[in-house]
Design goal:
The protein has helices at 23-26, 46-50, 67-80, 91-106, 110-113, 182-201, 207-229, 234-254, 258-266, 274-296, 301-314, 321-334, 350-358, 372-382, and strands at residues 13-15, 33-38, 55-60, 84-89, 130-134, 146-151, 156-161, 169-172. It is globular and about 60 Å long. It is α/β, with parallel strands linked by helices. It has a six-stranded parallel beta sheet, covered by helices on one side. The chain is built from 14 helices and eight strands.
Amino acid sequence: MTGAFEFATAARIVFGAGKALELPAMLDGWGDRAVVLTGSRPDRHAELIAALPMNVAIVTVSGEPTVDVARDAVAAAREHGAQAVLSVGGGSVIDLGKTVAMLLGNGGDPLDYLEVVGRGHPITRPSAPFAAVPTTAGTGAEVTMNAVLTAPEHGRKASVRARSMLPALALVDPLLTIDCPPAVTASSGLDALTQCLEPLVSRNRTPITDALAADGLAQAAAGLRAAYADGTVVAARTAMARCSLLGGMSLANAKLGAVHGFAGVIGGLVPVAHGAICAALLAPVTAANVQALRDRDPDNPALAAYRRASVLLTGDPEATVADGVEWIAETVRLLGIGGLAAAGLDPALVDEIVGQTGSSSSTKGNPIDLTAQELHGALVAAL
């Protein structure tokens, strides 16, 4: 942990059951035309959208956004004359909203700004006013400064990123997640857990992110299995919405690690939910990190952070790091998420994936540099 640090998040965060009813008042003064991005069933949020204080064009999003989907969405927003952007949906919907708001403010094409596979131009102008209203508890995208797009022609996911992409409003109402099906609850919830654990042990962690990530892990312990077992339990949904929010703030400021390094590569190869990919990788990568730290850097504070995480997840003050890894593995099993091979990942691609993961921007936050052999072993274990 460095001595100096900074922290950035959404301009305004509103959290609580029933808070979505107050959204129209929060958007007062945002202009008279807006584009609303939502999932493939906008009728789920018809009352919320109908109550908005502006004329809206609705753009539906099916699956994770691609470069072409982003182009179509920003074209629709421009045609409508949208002055503001609102996303009501999961992480993909929110990421697309951030991209549309950025392009309305900066002009150009998504590939002008996309990292790795695009031109990576700096984003120099403010985004159009953007509000994020998550309906899943997983990505924390409502408080992050990047948006992930898939570039199918490159077989890769990459980010558009700038501090100006942080939403002007993040409204988190746990009641909007009540009707999430169990599979979505599982994958998004395990993504949220990962996004608390990786920042807690990151080489870029700060006192603020430590506090947020630790509370996020405690919320995951309280809510993840319970929300999967019965999604109508408001207390469990509230815990997971809080976990997701705290994870988003943590990762935006402390970065992530090798789990997300792998996931960014694998996500471009198999049509599987991002959270399910993270879930399959979390226990094997954690075990690899812990062993590497013990072997090469036994005084690294990340080892103590891993033990703290184990205590928070298991609820046992005497829990060891191994207990925490087993709790994660058991939770993944209980939530019905299988290995990456069953998800369609070709084992023949392991070496290629390892090569790309080592240079991923997410992997740079890992608490220790894993060797190619260590990355290979973790990925094979996740198959």
